[in-house]
Amino acid sequence: MAVKDLRDLEEAAGTLPESTVAAAVRAMRAGGDALRSVVLARSLNALADAMAGDARGLEDVASAPSDLAVLLRMLERPEALEALLGEDPLAAARLRGIEARSKLLEQEGGAVPAEELGLMLGGITPQAVNKRRKAGRLLGLPVGESRYRYPVWQVEGGQVLPGFEEVLNVFGVEDPWMRAAFFLGGNARLGGERPLDELRRGNVEAVKRAASSYGEQLAD
User: Fold this and answer.
1) pLDDT greater at residue 53 or residue 152
2) pTM value?
3) Are residues 84 and 155 in the same domain?
4) Are 52 and 27 in the same domain?
5) Residues contacting 104, CB < 8 A, separation 6+
6) Same domain membership, residue 203 and residue 113
7) With CB atoms 3.0 to 4.6 Å apart as the test, which of 93, 116, 180, 208 could cross-link to 112 if both were Cys?
8) How far apart are alpha carbons 78 and 71 in whole angstroms?
């Protein structure tokens, strides 16, 4: 983006809502190189397509609690899906996947960077947290290149939830998102109870059996 364009936009602040100008300026600054500019332009084009048509429902979109929630609610609108499906037949499935991951990151206290989880574990270093993740002793959810968020529900009383590491070692699936979904979802082999709740009750062996067959359940 040209510096002149950015200055022109900043000078136009008096004619647009402050929040609109601030977001636009930030977007233009983020697109400071060719690759980012292409991604930004195509993303804005898709968002413009998603907002086209009837404005009904936009009040609910605008009232979402976070910028990510605004984006998800926007893409959930039937008009938006119809517009995007014309370009990508898998758009609805991709959106469902994004929504599912977003919910997993928010549940039971959310997920935090290695630094914060280290503090919860008595002040161990981020390097120690990452080392435990690589060794299969902590669950980390990938949120970008070499970046992870750690669900806080795997820690209780300043230590890893009793039995949690044992369950990680017997899982029938490797994908960390699927593992998180296992702990937070009802499980037929546990009478419909969530594995996380059963671990908290001390039913480690039952949760281990359910985890070891989790891949089989998904294939059924």
Assistant:
1) 152
2) 0.63
3) no
4) yes
5) 111, 141, 151, 177, 180, 181, 184
6) yes
7) 116
8) 14
